[in-house]
Request: fold
Amino acid sequence: MPLEPTLFHFAAPKRLHALAGRWVRPCLWLALAMGLPGLWLALVATPADAVQGEGYRILYVHVPAAWMSMWIYAVIAFWSFVGLIWRTRASHLMAHALAPTGAVFAALSLITGALWGKPMWGAWWVWDARLTTSLLLLFLYLGYLALLRAHEGRASADRPCAVLGLLGALNLPVIYFSVHWWNTLHQGASITASGASMPGATLAGLLLMTGAAWAWAFAVSFKRVQLLIEEREAHTRWLHHLQGDMHDAPHSIAVDAQPASAGGL
Reply:
């Protein structure tokens, strides 16, 4: 299906609400299915690093968190662009739903990086180019959330948040290329198009943990966008009908079950 018709199809809050509801549980199960073997590889199957010792295992959390913090902001920028150009309410809501999850990953990448850096570099923090631009990314997330909170989640927040989302995306290539543009403590990419400079089990564990992070991010963001839609669309008829059907369903099941119980007596 072409991209533009698909975007417009789910631009209606009613359709996005239904789509999000269908994907929350499968994404959570996928996160569990990938996270458990990923943790087993990270903590049990792979041996300690010859140089870094057992401390290198924190990279199984740090690297996926760093990747996710950048990718989620890129997705926020994409939805912000779509919302500004086509004025689709659902696009802004998707961006709002992703922002808290991205902020969590940005903070987690900095915290785990500090825990790894202290024994390896001898310092909790250095004003390294990669670290500084990653800290700026966290501030961008926090600024986005503060702007959303200042407008109390109303539609008036959509446009200023979208502008911040687009402007903040300029920081993403700076984060990625910082290890090439400046003399930093961070090493270059270990996974490239030509291959990976790590053992197969280590790579498998890292990719599984990244996949689990993606699935979890999708699950919580889909659930959050459902709640945002319900808040924004509280006055609409379709939501009242949906909520009425959900409340009536257990009652209907109980009523249908009574004759069978009475017959048994």
